[in-house]
Amino acid sequence: MKRQNGITVDDIMKLKCMENCKVIAGANGLNNPVAKVNMTVDPDILAWLDAGEFLLTTAYSFKTEDIEVQKNLITHCAQKGVAGIGIKVYPYVEALPEEIIETANQLNFPIVDIYHETPLSDITSDIFKEIFNKQASLLQRLEKIHEQLMHVVLSGGEIKDVVRVVHENLQNPILVKIEHQEEVTMGLNEYIKDTSASLLSNYTRFYDSMENKVKERKFNETIELINGQRVRRMVMPIIVKNNVYGHIFSWALKTPLGGFDLSVLETASTTIALEVLKQLSIRDVENRHRAEFMEDLLSLDMNRKEKALEKATVFKLGYDQKYAMILIQLENIGDTMIEDILQKVALINNDIDRLSTELKLNSFIVSKTDGIYIMLSFNNEKSPYNIIPEFCNKLEKLLSLRLKKDEYKIGIGRLYNGLSKVYKSYIDASKAIVSGGLIGEENVVYFEKLGIYKILCQDVLKEELEKFYSVTLEPLVEYDRKKSTELVKTLESYYFNNGNLKKLSDDLYTHYNTTLYRLQRIQDITGMQLDNHKDRLNLEIALKIKRILKK
């Protein structure tokens, strides 16, 4: 929308110079904003017209031009956003053609019959004076509103105080939604419940994925259906660090929304952005202190660990409670801008905070650019064994709303007694993320569910695993590679089907005799017998080691 801080066509009709003039068409467009006035006798002026102009002319061209040319003039003026047209009809024609009147009415485009004795220059002069006086008045009002908003900021006011100032000055309903806050701030008090409910529903629809405008860093203006009436809605983004952190909504229920209102919303958006930036800065400082504490607590350096334990009471953490670590690791975000990542992490952080409050859990959260650390603490009154799975299930649902499925993994460590042992739960959670694919888990992996991988994934065992693999399964892998056979796949299916040869054949789509031949070749190449329980166990473990070593 082009900003128009002038007057309306209705204001023009109230000027003394217009007392003998009358509106003959397009009365529904009298609230069209007028920013300037233009005068012409040439119907080809369309290329030079701007939105917000009030055009003055005579009916001379209407007398000489074809009716389609006249309709074309009215139609194109309306499409370009011209506020209206004043035509000195008499003495050029007795009246404008009825088709012109109908066209203007359909387009809500005002046509004013200018009294034949009134000079167009007088009208032009008076309109310019009215526009100048109106703009001067609006500038004074804007300056006053700016002072009120600055007073809110300097006196430590909150977003609700900004909304109150804007609502009082615009006289229209105001709603502010900040993305990292669950609640909305509203200036709707004087509206009946049905209207308030309709506005809340309308604002909610804006955030539906179909709208696709939530992340746009630009002003949005539409006509909305509110309680059966078409109402203009303005939506101003709140931009912090080049990212959209929320929006200000306003609906033209009481007075029209124009350039002045747009200027007020812009000022309010900047003011709220300062408050959001302050909140983000405070949270960043808090997170930095938490991150330093967490790094010391998880360190294997005893001096750093002792330093962290001494600070535990500052963060209201007990020494003897039970603790579990949950890690959220962000993945496949290489091309994402750092500011976008930080915003997503901040929003997820708030989601986790609300989830912890909902479940009445004590959580200690640390955000990083590559993920989030969550430390849950439990006293003897609460049993964590049901609460942790519930927390993780809801956490995954929250993450799925913010991220794609391949953009995150959640690792859950075991529960340990005492703050000094929480580093063990962290190691568990890290290994769960690394090893989750080995047991077929994609996004949420509990260390306790890793089975034998809990043992095999120990870093100190890597050399032994390499040796074990080389003397058990590696010859079979090499044979497959050289001969283009599928003996390793056959062996994996053998364990999957618990040694049932019929199921194994069905699984591999092979003849029973072919299956027997493959199993014999496996035994010949590895030197191990599948009917020997020790050899059978060693080959099964070797398959698991193969996955760990990514051979």
TrEMBL record:
Origin: domain of life: Bacteria
Residue spans crossing the bilayer: none
Domain Purine catabolism PurC-like per the UniProt entry, residue ranges: 11-131
InterPro entries (alphabetical): CdaR-like_regulators, CdaR_GGDEF, GAF-like_dom_sf, PucR_C-HTH_dom, PucR_C-HTH_sf, PucR_dom
Residue ranges occupied by any PucR C-terminal helix-turn-helix domain in the UniProt entry: 487-545
Residue span(s) of domain CdaR GGDEF-like: 305-433
PANTHER family the UniProt entry points to: CARBOHYDRATE DIACID REGULATOR, DNA-BINDING TRANSCRIPTIONAL ACTIVATOR ADER
Family, per entry: Belongs to the CdaR family.
Name the UniProt record assigns to this protein: PucR family transcriptional regulator
Provenance organism: Alkaliphilus serpentinus
Lineage: Bacteria, Bacillati, Bacillota, Clostridia, Peptostreptococcales
